[in-house]
Fold:
Amino acid sequence: MTHTTTNPFQPAGDPDKFHEECGVFGIYGTEDAAALTALGLHALQHRGQEAAGIVSYDGKRFHPHRAMGLVGDIFSDGEVIGRLRGDSAIGHNRYSTAGETVLRNVQPLYADYSFGGLALAHNGNLTNARQLRRELVETGSLFQSTMDTEVIQHLIATSRGTHLLDRVTDALRAIDGAYSLVALSRRKLIGARDPLGVRPLVLGQLGDAWILASETCALDIIGASFVRDIEPGEVVVIDEDGLRSHKPAPQVRQRLCIFEYIYFARPDSDVDGTNVYEARKAIGAELARESQVDADLVIPVPDSGVPAAIGYAAEARVPFELGMIRNHYVGRTFIEPTDEIRHLGVRLKHNANRGQLRGKRVILVDDSIVRGTTSQKIVEMVRNAGASEVHVRISSPPTRSPCFYGIDTPEASELLAAKHDVEGIRQLIGADSLAYISMDGLYRAMGEPGRDNESPQYCDACFSGEYPTMLTDMNDTDNTSQMSLLAELA
Structure:
């Protein structure tokens, strides 16, 4: 289940945004595997900023290093990378969606099994992890973390499979939810993606080396070539004999998380064959067709609103300008966080460009409204900078439901759209008008005729409330009580 935390090592995030899930990276068959993994994690930093870790293997020993903080801080020391010897490695960036923000919850996890060592890293969230954990504890398993990833680790350990692939397959058959994972043994690099393909995973190549990563931008940073996406339900095994593909799960219709295109993935990545930047521009153009209004300027909330605003401006034939400037060097403030300072916090990250806004009717484009707190302050900032009108346009439908698939979202009671209609939200944020893209409009922007309500083409549960998998743990009160107790003891 999603879990919101505060990390003293991380700059305070925007409370009015969904927070990213995690990023995974794996490489097999090249010198400097750990250094390349660190570069890959750097490209995936947007997927998790709380902690990072790498485990490498040199043919004799596994070498782990995990720490709280950003990739550039953790792995900038050449001595650290020097200790991570070997020609294969896996890495992980973390934003906590399940479990606490403590070092024991930083991935990759490592364990010694009867068949040897295995390091494991995963992006996503298991919706039956609590139930499985309880069953494993009752049969003697001892857990060291509060993460659902460790459930996979124990399922591999308790499997009666003869070979590693059999054990991994047994574990994957037992879990529900969303995941992309990488695992490293003494002889193999393994990658797997959930049967619905909710979370992305790509395959790349650098010379003779094979690479697995959450996004293609991680391939670009090390000069690797993109080979293909790992297919939903696919397990790939990479060793000295090359790459082999297995599909142990029955084939079902893909349900990639549509928020990857709206916000999560880096705009220069391609996700399941679609360029994210182009997708966001197309969403903005469709939003303009649905909700155009007379205005002098289109401005984005940077940086996530920029591509959609470009698409909106081009379709509406209204000039695009940078009406807000983002400060990219925001860290933890040294000022005591009084109520007044917290109120000014948005200005640490964004500032209105008065010269562009004064006397103008402005269309302000953003990707989402979650709690509404930041949106209210940004509208106020733009208006105080002299804008005569502020019309807010959102490149996603209203977010009415929490995510249980690896994205840190508030409870439904904290989601503004779960409590108010569009007019109510408009009044709360102080805009002259407010419009979201429709669900069908979002699907049209993605090249579909509209949303297939019988069998949606994407996972859009945060908008529709229709979850594509069983939510076992959410309906298990005994399990919830047990996990609450564990959290108190931790």
The longest helix spans residues 276-291. Confidence is low (pLDDT under 50) at residues 1-13, 332-336, 479-490. Residues 206 and 224 are 5 Å apart (CA to CA). The two ends are 17 Å apart (CA to CA).
